[in-house]
Amino acid sequence: MDQSNQRTFNFNAGPSALPLVVLEKAQKELVNFRGTGMSIMEMSHRSATFEDIHNGAISRMRKLYSIPNDYEVLFLQGGASLQFSMIPMNFLKNGQQAGYIMTGSWSEKALEEAKLFGEPYEIASTKTDKYRNIPTLEELQFHLDDAYVHVTSNNTIYGTQWSTFPDTSNIPLIADMSSDIMSKPVDVSKFGMIYAGAQKNLGPSGVTVVIIRKDLLAKTNEEIPTILKYSTHVDSNSLYNTPPTFGIYMLGEVLKWVEENGGLDVIAKNNEVKAKVIYDAIDNSNGFYTGHATLESRSLMNITFRVAIESLEKLFLSEAKEVGFVGLNGHRSVGGCRASTYNAVPLEACKALAEFMVQFQSKHS
Ligand SMILES: Cc1ncc(COP(=O)(O)O)c(C=O)c1O
């Protein structure tokens, strides 16, 4: 617990820590938003006030990511999970193939949905190695007539992350960036589409960001429900139906915070420093702690590790909880420990955790 502001050291994997200044501002603006006499949750999504918030969030996103003009930015609902279905529903024609690069459970879920619509196949998989690593670029062989290639940029559960994305030439590369969106600069022009649930780096759950290249819209299937077509949301500036207005406001405020903190270059540097503090505690422990991911595939967002002596792991997690660290249990499907160090997790929290790890080790070895 950070005693100065009574905030816990929050390492949750998502929903996760939000910038304190954003929460405080939202609190201040909650009951009477900028003199309107009502909260954002109570106003029309067609009002000029909300339009400003909505378009402001889109233009901040465009600016921070240097999104080229031939891309649209959408705010949808249904989480990243709905994108697993919408992508093949829109882009995969019966009998057509799409390549999926398999780096964890979220890639598996995306692939399973695509099987309902076309003929997806695995380009490469690191499953036999317990998803400890990202495949090398040389391992990736895709077909030149694939509808798209799908990649998960950061594997939240296993703690691995792509550092260099494959060049798929004319085949649209579609990336699930749910757990590392806006954690560093990205060359958007390398992708046909990027999508992410907001609840890790961007705001509360309920908003899904989609950045889509306009030429893909012409290739979408027509025989699908209106609300599931990307073109529907492009044509209505994501206001086809009532959007998650408060979530979009929060997302815009989080992006403002990113801007005010120096933009993505600074955020990326901070993230490197934060992750290093915890990885150092693992690497300098003489095997007391072991990292799950291979060195070259390590994520700067989700740090996965084990306490090598199994009987001590439970104690580590319960003592950590007792002293105020939240969210350190690994995902229920893999166990172990995981510290998620998203953009809004302060360096002090990472330092405090590393210190706790060192102390726990000296107490028990
Ligand atoms: C990489 C990745 N993709 C997809 C999802 C699913 O996201 P949602 O819960 O928004 O559907 C998650 C959730 O943690 C994730 O980490």
Key descriptive features of the protein:
about 375 residues; alpha/beta; 10 helices; globular; binds pyridoxal-5'-phosphate
Bound molecules: pyridoxal-5'-phosphate
Average pLDDT over all residues: 96
Write down the secondary-structure element order.
EHHEHEHEEEEEEEHHHHEEHEEH
Number of strands: 14
Q: How much helix is in the residues?
A: 25-40%
User: Could you tell me the radius of gyration in angstroms?
Assistant: 21 Å
Residues in β-strands, percent:
15-25%
Task: Note the gap between the termini.
Answer: 26 Å
Distinct helical segment count: 10
What would the principal axes of the Cα set say about the shape?
globular
Helix vs. strand class: alpha/beta
Largest sheet: 7 strands, mixed
